[in-house]
Amino acid sequence: MMKSVVRSCSRLGLVLVVLGLTACGTFKASCAKPDDYASAKELPPLTVPSGLDAPDTRAALKIPELVDPERPRAAGDDCIDHPPAFAESKQPVPQA
User: Fold this and answer.
1) On the CB side of 40, how many CA atoms lie within 13 Å of its CA?
2) pTM listed for this prediction
């Protein structure tokens, strides 16, 4: 009797752990929803009070303007959260 209760609890625990570990992969992110950065506005340059030196901004990050339109996504395309595979499978080198 006691062994069956322990075995049932062990199986239930194992099922819960497996479900807990796989549940995050079942929801697919949508590329259509805007993120926080999409509504970001450009700020004016820093105003330095008189008597202080302005910081050196020559090495500041410059973000170029977007000139290309956004590529339309097909229904099955993945989001940027799921990047494409960069490595291709290597073909065996024929031996001479």
Assistant:
1) 7
2) 0.27
Q: Report mean pLDDT in 10-residue bins for the chain, 96 residues.
A: 81 80 59 70 87 87 80 71 66 70
DSSP for 54-86 reads PP--TTS--PPPP-SPPPP--TT---TTSPPP-
What Å distances lie between residue 51 and 46, 48, 57, CA to CA? 15, 8, 18
Rounded to whole angstroms, the maximal C-alpha distance in the chain is 84
- Of 28, 20, 38, 34, the closest CA to residue 82 belongs to 28
Separation between Cα atoms, residue 94 and residue 96, nearest integer Å: 7
